[in-house]
Amino acid sequence: MFFKNKDNMEIFYKDSGNIDDKPIVFLHAWGSNHTDFDYTFENLEGYRRVVYDHRGFGNSEKPEKKISLKHLANDLYDLIGYLELKNVILVGYSMGASVLYKYIELFGTNNISAVVICDMTPKMTCDNEWKYGILDGKYSKDDVLETMALHFDDLTEAYMQLYKAIDPSLNEKNDRALKRMIEIDLSKNSYYSITAMWFSLCYEDFRKSIKKIDIPTGLFFAHPGSLINPETVEYLESHIKDTYTHIFEESTHSFVNCKPKKFMNELKIFLERIN
């Protein structure tokens, strides 16, 4: 199904469950689409489940302008309004969690009853005072420039480097086969959306915004992790009032879609706690 956002763009979504059940909206990761949450969408009973593709990704319209976390947060606002959802639970994975951060920065927590942040830091880049960015706290603004330059030069190569950072076991795979897989993934999204959203993700700093989160919050992170420093959890716990933490042991950043049954079961535990 599709709806049109305020920018008159077609946004793809799927809606399942009883219309009277409590709604959960799932927000997918960078370079991905709504299928991040396929298992949970199909198997989580007792809730109205909504998944969708951010603009520029998956089946949604792929514009050549207006791609940033602000626009993606506005699309989420439009979707909630279009479906007339009340007291929504938001589950954001990776970039989806950054969309969640931006949504709360712009709109607060009115009409949001709980959030789940899946493996995402409030600030991706690191500096002398901030060590909880991506890639074990070693990704600086200079690294952003190098990444963006590689995006423009060879997006497949740039993406492969990130794939290997997210899942170190890929270093043992054949690069040619891995590149073919990446090219298939990239074909589902637009070059502009991939590149523009990486810049937007690296530009934003939500350390002030997370203090606005005054509702029950699930913190789902991985250990030993790969993209996000697991110590980020302690920072979030100290700045968000009401948190519940679950660490997915022996996991990388990809636990949402690589361990879908475990993810759904832990999500159910959190949902039972807040009901």
Properties at a glance:
eight-stranded mixed sheet, 275 residues, Rossmann fold
Describe the structure in brief.
The protein is 41% helix and 18% strand. It is α/β, with parallel strands linked by helices.
Overview of the molecule:
The protein has 275 residues and is α/β, with parallel strands linked by helices. It has 2 domains: 2-123 and 204-274, Alpha/Beta hydrolase fold, catalytic domain (Rossmann fold), CATH 3.40.50; 134-198, no CATH class. The chain contains 11 helices and 8 strands. It has helices spanning 38-43, 69-82, 95-107, 134-137, 141-153, 155-166, 175-186, 191-203, 232-239, 255-258, 260-274, and strands spanning 2-4, 10-16, 23-27, 48-52, 88-93, 112-118, 217-224, 243-251.
The beta-strand count equals 8
Spans where pLDDT lies below 50 across 5 or more residues: none
| Structural domains: how many | 2
Look up the CATH topology of the largest domain: Rossmann fold
Count of individual helical segments: 11
Strand order of the largest sheet: 1-2-4-3-5-6-7-8
Topology diagram in text:
Elements: E1 2-4, E2 10-16, E3 23-27, H1 38-43, E4 48-52, H2 69-82, E5 88-93, H3 95-107, E6 112-118, H4 134-137, H5 141-153, H6 155-166, H7 175-186, H8 191-203, E7 217-224, H9 232-239, E8 243-251, H10 255-258, H11 260-274
Parallel strand pairs: 3-4, 3-5, 5-6, 6-7, 7-8
Antiparallel strand pairs: 1-2, 2-4
GO molecular function, one term: hydrolase activity
Organism: Peptostreptococcus canis
Protein name: Alpha/beta hydrolase
